[in-house]
Amino acid sequence: MHEYSLVGDLLDQVTAHARARGATAVRKVTVGIGELAGVDPALFATAFETFRAAGPCRETELVIHWVEARWVCPTCARPITRGAVLRCPDCNGPGSLATGDELTLERIELEVPDPHTLRPTTGTSARFGD
Ligand SMILES: [Zn+2]
Questions:
Q1: Which of 34, 44, 66, 89 is most deeply buried (CB count within 10 A of its CB)?
Q2: Tens digit of each residue's pLDDT (9 = 90 or more) over 34-86
């Protein structure tokens, strides 16, 4: 299934971000799914539950941001009403899709260890065992 390979890619990306920041876990991931992206949000969520078992996403909350399709006129940038004929009311040019066909990783919330517990800032507090 298409959604399963997309979730595999998403988890790879999220894991790479988490490693790069030294995160111990990922709290929340927000994904934007456009209504014309050809992705079923319910299937996507199920695939996420299935694949996250190993790695830093075990406890991650998945938030799906549903992005409605919007069209604009590429010539005069006028928004074109949903459901209407997809032509610009001003110049009669064909509408072009502005949003709605995307699948994006919008936000990641990481659990990062407090840097103060790792790097004492004064010389005396960093010394022990003399
Ligand atoms: Zn126009």
A1: 44
A2: 999 999 999 999 999 998 877 789 999 999 999 999 999 999 999 998 876 89
How many whole angstroms from 71 Cα to the centroid of ligand 1?
11
Please give the distance, rounded to the nearest whole angstrom, from the Cα atom of residue 22 to the centre of ligand 1: 49
Where are the domains positioned within the chain? 2-113
- CATH class of the 2-113 domain in this structure: alpha beta
Distance 95 CA to ligand 1 centre (A): 8
Rounded Cα distance between 81 and 72, Å, is 9
State how far the Cα of 79 lies from the Cα of 88, in Å rounded to an integer.
Answer: 8
**pTM of the full predicted structure?**
0.77
Q: Can you read off the two tokens belonging to residue 68?
A: 């409605």
Ligand 1 centroid – CA 81 distance (Å): 12
- What's the gap in Å between 101 CA and the centre of ligand 1? 21
pLDDT digits (tens, 9 = 90+) for 73-130: 999 999 998 876 899 999 999 999 999 999 999 999 999 886 655 555 544 444 555 5
Ligand 1 center–CA 90 separation, angstroms? 5
